[in-house]
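Work Package 3 (structural annotation) set out to generate three-dimensional models for the target panel prioritized at the project kickoff. During this period the team completed the workflow that converts sequence records into discrete structure tokens, so that structures can be stored uniformly alongside our sequence database. As a representative example, we reproduce one entry of 220 residues exactly as it appears in the project archive.
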Amino acid sequence: MGTLDIINSVGASVGAVAAVSAAIFAGWGIRRTTNDNRARAQPVLVAEFGPSEFSSDTIRLIVKNMGATPARDIQVVFEPPIPEGAKGSHAWVLHERYDKAIPTLAPGQQLGNSWWLSDFSLDDPSSRNVRGLPNEVKVTFTYTGLDGVELSDFYNLNVRVALLEGNAVSSSSVPGRLEMIATSTKVIADSVKSTIPRIAEAMEERKAPAHSENVADLHA
């Protein structure tokens, strides 16, 4: 075999090895990209405390799916456990909602429950929850994701983080206008309330002379 034949043979072998290597790396890259895409497509359950939309004194527990696909067969565990509550109470509602597995939570879907109402009979209202629920809780999720993958997440929550939320209300906003209307209505109601006795007194004063004149005419 001549030198040229040897060079061609070696070159062909190297080319074959390079082609095989390229195919292997391409396959690895495709699998990695696919796995990354599948991982990003998994559901992600999140628990958080947040202020109520309609009450600055009420804190809600929010559970939501931040992922791209539905979460299924969701088990929720609270530590410490939710205390037993009377039927219809907030604790009872939480038991009813989370004691059994939640079948499905779609992407973007959320569940909300009232958790905290400050006790304003105390010097520090934020030190006690009228609802009887703890101000610190660990929420653990176990659920099934895409392709039957078993997933788990947990969140340590403290209600004081949400209680320290500060919001400014503009007088031109809807809540600001409603507050102005409520204040004006109260002023009007207080004014009417204080005026009614004076009106009644004036009417009594006007009735008295007329009654006396009628009695005098009868005696005459």
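The two ends are 160 Å apart (CA to CA).
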